[in-house]
Input
Amino acid sequence: MSVQSQVLVMAASTRTGSLNQALAALVAAEIDSGGDRAVAVDLRDYELPLYNGDLEAAEGVPGAAKDLVVLAGEAKALVLVSPEYNGAFPPLLKNTVDWMTRLDMRVLAPLTVGLASASPGRGGGARGLNIIRQWMGNMSVNVLDEQLTVPSATLNDDGALVGADEVALAALVAAIKASERTPTDA
Output
């Protein structure tokens, strides 16, 4: 691509010392080094109440959800970096998308979505990513075949992720770069 593209990198974890926050930072750095511009989305900066139709009717859609929809409209791709919770994905991710889709049911459909997960377990979060893949497919979102899982993940003394497969990371970023989506003109 001749123009620098914006890629959102969203970690579905807000915990201090999160493996997936560290993985998101690694993915963002790889995207930046490849010539695109990674925009790290820290969901701590976009606090949302649990979705409730009565709350929405009384107060409307929260501003944080509106801000996320704007970011999505400016991006060509989204990388969801998600921990695995009991074989699935965390409610933080589901709630965030629920609020975003209240403004635009197809907000994620134009984006190419990449998936990544880090876990201290042997599966690297793959079971959770499989469920996210199916969920995104239900919303007509194009999810890349390439995905990054980091099994037996740990953090070093500086808080950086240890154990990521550099070949798989490069393949995920290359697939994102090759995607065709053009950002929405504002």
